[in-house]
Write a structure and sequence with these properties.
The chain is of the alpha+beta class and 226 residues long. The protein has two domains: 176 residues, Jelly Rolls, CATH 2.60.120.620; 41 residues, DNA Excision Repair, Uvrb, Chain A (Irregular), CATH 4.10.860. The chain is 31% helix and 31% strand. It is built from five helices and 17 strands. Strands 1, 2, 4, 5, 6, 10, 14 and 17 form an eight-stranded antiparallel β-sheet that branches. Strands 3-7-15-12-13 form a five-stranded antiparallel β-sheet, with no helix packed on it. It has a two-stranded antiparallel ribbon with strand order 8-9. It binds nickel (II) ion. The site of nickel (II) ion has 3 residues, from loops.
Length: 226
């Protein structure tokens, strides 16, 4: 399931983030890739402990915690600190599946990458190429969103970023361990949640709202792990 979150960052917030990202010292993205991924990865990343990564990352996490659409789609248990990348001059990231498990820095915890998210910090007209292509059950999904928008997609999916042949593409990406491991089950819960929101908006006080809400929570209880 792919879900677009529009306007996670406002235009002003994007501008502020861009000022920080453009002034940062970037390193070769292969430093953080496994040996398989390193063969197809040609981009730049902020070092994980970079103060700007920490500062912007905290802002992203704060936003996500107040974004009902993200919570409904990802059902987050925990989120890895956001990372940042930069593509230019033909930079690309070939087909790969992300690592399944990451250690959470500064803790003894590990995180399973059920859900991937990319948050765009460049507008589509600033660069050519640089599409995120996610292979899902309905075929290739091509994603190139306005700055400030994010896409949520299954961590299990094969995906790539096409070469950036003009301009610079800045983005943040991060992984979430979900309360519900299965993408299929998350989709059912998301669809039910959306239907309940719609019913509540169209027919406030409708007697079935409580019944469907009860079913939602009973499914979540059945399928979640904490
Ligand atoms: Ni990836």
């Amino acid at each position: 399931m792919l879900v677009t979150i529009s306007g996670l960052f406002s235009a002003d917030e994007v501008r502020e983030a861009r000022t920080l990202l453009e002034a940062a010292e970037w390193q070769d993205g292969r430093a953080t890739a496994g040996h398989i991924a390193a063969r197809v990865k040609a981009n730049q990343q902020l070092p994980l402990d970079h103060p700007i990564a920490k500062r912007l990352g905290d802002r992203i996490l704060d936003k996500l915690s107040r974004t009902p659409l993200f919570i409904a789609a990802a059902l987050p248990l925990r989120i890895l600190p956001p990372r940042f990348n930069r593509y230019e001059g033909g930079g690309t990231y070939g087909n790969h599946v992300d690592n399944a498990i990451f250690s959470i820095p500064g803790t003894a915890l590990r995180l399973r990458t059920d859900v991937s998210t990319t948050l765009f910090f460049s507008d589509p007209d600033e660069y050519d190429g640089g599409e995120l292509i996610v292979e899902d059950s309905y075929g290739d999904q091509r994603v190139k969103l306005p700055a400030g928008d994010a896409i949520v997609y299954p961590g299990s999916s094969l995906h790539r970023v096409t070469p950036v042949t003009r301009g610079v593409r800045y983005a943040s990406f991060f992984w979430t361990q979900s309360l519900v491991r299965s993408d299929e089950k998350r989709r059912i819960l998301f669809d039910l949640d959306c239907a309940i929101q719609q019913l509540t908006a169209d027919h406030p006080g409708h007697g079935s709202i409580d019944d469907f809400t009860g079913t939602y929570h009973n499914l979540l209880r059945l399928w979640s792990e904490t």
